[in-house]
Each structure stands twice: as structure tokens, then as C-alpha cells.
From TrEMBL:
Pfam families, per database record: Macro (PF01661)
Highest taxon of source: Bacteria
Domain Macro span(s) in chain numbering: 1-169
Protein name according to UniProt: O-acetyl-ADP-ribose deacetylase
Matches recorded under InterPro entries: Macro_dom (IPR002589), Macro_dom-like (IPR043472)
Organism the protein comes from: Streptomyces glaucus
Length: 169
């Protein structure tokens, strides 16, 4: 049984087995969630990301995929880095956004993580409309076949929280 929970807060302050990072394909850090993860988590995470780039993802981590590192100084065991799609009005990229949630949970299952915290992937710098981002997030994790016991959405502001709350009702 998987429980979905919703909190308003900062994803880098969650005590969970794994937090999901809204990364970019370079794996070398950026703004938003990514910046906060590396700032608070310290240099160990970036060092592992660099090693992943050198070994497996020389061309970058593809959009919709996920990969784990340890969590440095965060109160979590792992960071699962996933690359959301940039919003496009011309092209339907919702499959890629759903894939971020699904692949992150698959990686969480491989790790044996029982509690996983997600941000609202792609809804910041990548411009995805919040209501639609919330719909895809909630529908995808609800349908996922996973051993994760708690999936926690961590929303940064009231608007995001309300969008997710409306989808969970
Ligand atoms: P993306 O590039 O995938 O759009 P962002 O990190 O820019 O990723 O934003 C994703 C969402 O996470 C946005 O809704 C943003 O407001 C929110 N956000 C930014 N910082 C944090 C944080 N520290 N904890 C939780 N959510 C955050």
C-alpha cells in the first residue's frame, strides 16, 4: 500500500529515504530545486554527479530518466535526479513528465527506498503550467506499481500546494 501525502515546504529539508531532484540533463547543478539540493547537500552530491557523467551519461541524462546518488549532508539517504521536459505549447511532452515520476519510483524501488519526496517537476524554470503538472504527477504516482510506502509531494508555495490538493481530492 502506497500513501500519498502533501506538504508545503522545502524538499531539501525532508527526512525521507530519497528526495527527487528536478535536475537538468548536465547533472552539474542549476537553479530552483537543483540549486537548493547542491547548496544544502554539499559537494559530495556534485562529485557523484560528475562521476556519473564521466561513466554513463557523457551526453547528459536524457529527459524523462532518473539516476540516484547519495544525499551528502541532507537528511535523506539518496537523491534521485530526474530531468523534466521543458514546457512546449507546440508539442505534447506530458509522456516525458509522467516518465520522470515513474522512472524515479523505479529507481527508488531498486534502492529499497520506502519514503520518497517529490517536488513539482518542470513547473519552475521549465515552465510547465502548475495545474497540469499536478495532474500528471498525481495520476502517474497513483497508477505506479511500486513498493514505496509513502510518496510525499513537497510544494514550495501556496499555489502549488493548492493545485496538488485539488488533484488529490
Ligand atoms: P524545473 O526546472 O524542473 O522547472 P525548478 O527547480 O525550477 O525545476 O522548479 C520545480 C518546482 O519546484 C517549482 O514549482 C518551484 O517553485 C519548486 N521549488 C523550488 N525550490 C524548491 C525547494 N527548495 N523545495 C521544493 N520545491 C521547490
Amino acid at each position: 500500500m502506497t500513501t500519498l501525502t502533501l506538504v508545503r515546504g522545502d524538499i531539501t529539508r525532508q527526512s525521507v529515504d530519497a528526495i527527487v531532484n528536478a535536475a537538468n540533463s548536465s547533472l552539474l547543478g542549476g537553479g530552483g530545486v537543483d540549486g537548493a539540493v547542491h547548496r544544502r547537500g554539499g559537494p559530495a552530491i556534485l562529485a557523484e554527479c560528475r562521476a556519473l557523467r564521466a561513466s554513463r551519461y557523457g551526453e547528459g541524462l536524457p529527459t524523462g530518466r532518473a539516476v540516484a546518488t547519495t544525499a551528502g549532508e541532507l537528511d535523506a539517504r539518496w537523491v534521485i535526479h530526474t530531468v523534466g521536459p521543458v514546457w512546449s505549447a507546440q508539442e505534447d511532452r506530458s509522456g516525458l513528465l509522467a516518465s520522470c515520476y515513474r522512472e524515479s519510483l523505479r529507481v527508488a524501488d531498486e534502492l529499497g527506498a520506502r519514503t520518497v519526496a517529490f517536488p513539482a517537476i518542470s513547473t519552475g524554470i521549465y515552465g510547465w503550467p502548475m495545474d497540469d503538472g499536478a495532474r500528471i504527477a498525481v495520476e502517474t504516482v497513483r497508477d505506479a506499481d511500486t513498493a514505496v510506502e509513502e510518496i510525499r509531494f513537497v510544494l514550495f508555495d501556496e499555489r502549488a500546494y493548492e493545485a496538488f490538493a485539488a488533484r488529490m481530492r
